[in-house]
Amino acid sequence: MLARFPHEHKAWLWQWHTIPNGDPSEALAPGLQLTGVMLMPPVHTPRAFRELRIDAEKTIHFHALVPLTTDEMQLKLEHGAEALLPGFDKHGITELLAADRSSSLRRSAAWFNFWRKG
User: Exposed/middle/buried for 75, CB within 10 Å: 0-12, 13-18, 19+?
Assistant: First the structure.
């Protein structure tokens, strides 16, 4: 889906972009709460592996895909990626897949409500 996205939608993908799994978004796989992804800088690779310079005019950038729950995606769309990062840091959410993880927001309802009121 992501490989076709730029071609089908005449758009580009970059870090912090979110892509839902369909419209309306559905679970990425049966039984999961994860319904979309966000492109982020990879945490588990050295900085040197984040780009590959082909020549003076072409560089390939590598991004991590971090699966999101519906409420995480909604918070990101309303308040930006920076609203998600404290919860991701607190709960150790990175590009390493934890298919059974719950929302980083449900575990910190007071923090979520703070952003929702803003």
Answer: buried
**Number of residues that make up the chain:** 118
| Helical H segments across 11-103, by residue range | 70-79, 85-91
What gap in Å lies between CA 22 and CA 54, rounded to an integer? 33
Gap between the Cα atoms of 15 and 13, Å rounded: 7
Query: Quick check: helix, strand or coil at residue 44?
Result: coil
Note the pTM of the prediction, 2 decimals. 0.80
Looking up tokens 């992501």, which residue turns up? 2
pLDDT tens, 25-62? 999 999 999 999 999 999 898 988 899 999 999 999 99
Q: Which burial class, exposed, middle or buried, applies to 115 when counting CB atoms under 10 A from its CB (0-12, 13-18, 19+)?
A: middle
